[in-house]
């Protein structure tokens, strides 16, 4: 039986819709009254795990799931040892640097050396500022990162942006897009090579739904 790790949150509905298009129905996860974290597809050919988005590649890397759906942002941040199969072309957002609208900084290189930057994407933030040779202090925050500049704890943030509405309502403005992010299909490397339980055929059907050649 193939196990698929599905992400809680913004990607879940589209992930379930994609899997349903190839005959796997995990729509019970969308029922607010359902508290199950593991369910079988009605055909009993696959099992779904409902996990935090950041944990999807962990379950896949350690073999508890053969497939997973996760945002490119998580892959960039976690750098997991998984097979990256295909861009699923939904869940569009971007990783950006933002500052207070009242700030005089309009490019990241204008930030003073050793400025404080708040982010839940510590690796991505550090990698970017290293690339422009600007030493900064990365402050890890895992809640409302926007409060960093608002309270004066940080000069900037690095965070995911979708519509930009949250930044706007909190008086922040983007000054740099680091990369675009969409949902990706990932697989356990050994399972991908050995093709247990028709894993390769399932991946092929998913590619066909996206009109992407194998």
Describe the structure.
The protein has 214 residues and is an alpha/beta fold. The chain folds into 2 domains: 2-91 and 182-209, Periplasmic binding protein-like II (D-Maltodextrin-Binding Protein, domain 2, 3-Layer(aba) Sandwich); 93-179, D-Maltodextrin-Binding Protein, domain 2, CATH 3.40.190.10. 28% of the residues lie in helices and 30% in strands. The chain is built from 8 helices and 11 strands. The strands form 2 sheets. A 6-stranded mixed sheet has the order 2-3-1-4-11-5. Helix 4 (122-131) links the parallel strand 7 (115-119) and strand 8. The longest helix has 11 residues, at 199-209. The two termini are 23 Å apart. The model has no long low-confidence stretch (mean pLDDT 95).
Spatial sequence of strands, sheet with the most strands: 2-3-1-4-11-5
Q: What is the overall silhouette?
A: elongated
SS content category: alpha/beta
CATH class of the largest domain: Alpha Beta
Number of domains: 2
The CATH architecture of the largest domain can be given as: 3-Layer(aba) Sandwich
Distance between the termini: 23 Å
* CATH fold description of the largest domain: D-Maltodextrin-Binding Protein, domain 2
Structural descriptors:
six-stranded mixed sheet; alpha/beta; 28% helix; 214 residues; D-Maltodextrin-Binding Protein, domain 2; 11 strands; elongated; single chain; 30% strand; five-stranded mixed sheet; 2 domains
């Amino acid at each position: 039986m193939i196990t698929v790790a599905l992400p809680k949150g913004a990607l879940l509905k589209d992930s379930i819709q994609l899997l349903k298009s190839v005959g796997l129905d995990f729509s019970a996860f969308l029922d607010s009254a359902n508290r199950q974290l593991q369910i079988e597809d009605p055909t009993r050919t696959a099992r779904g795990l409902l996990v935090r988005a950041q944990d999807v590649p962990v379950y896949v890397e350690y073999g508890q799931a053969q497939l997973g759906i996760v945002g490119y942002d998580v892959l960039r941040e976690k750098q997991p040892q998984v097979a990256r199969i295909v861009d699923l072309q939904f869940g569009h957002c971007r990783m950006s640097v933002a500052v207070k609208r009242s700030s005089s900084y309009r490019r990241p290189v204008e930030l003073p050396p050793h400025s404080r930057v708040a982010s839940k994407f510590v690796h991505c933030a550090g990698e970017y500022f290293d690339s422009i040779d600007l030493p900064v202090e990365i402050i890890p925050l895992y809640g409302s990162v926007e409060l960093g500049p608002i309270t004066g704890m940080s000069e900037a943030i690095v965070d995911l942006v979708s519509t930009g509405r949250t930044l706007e309502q909190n008086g922040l403005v983007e000054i740099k897009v680091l990369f675009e992010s969409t949902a990706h299909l990932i697989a356990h490397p050994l399972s991908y090579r050995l093709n247990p339980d028709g894993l390769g055929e399932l991946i092929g059907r998913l590619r066909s739904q996206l009109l992407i050649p194998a």
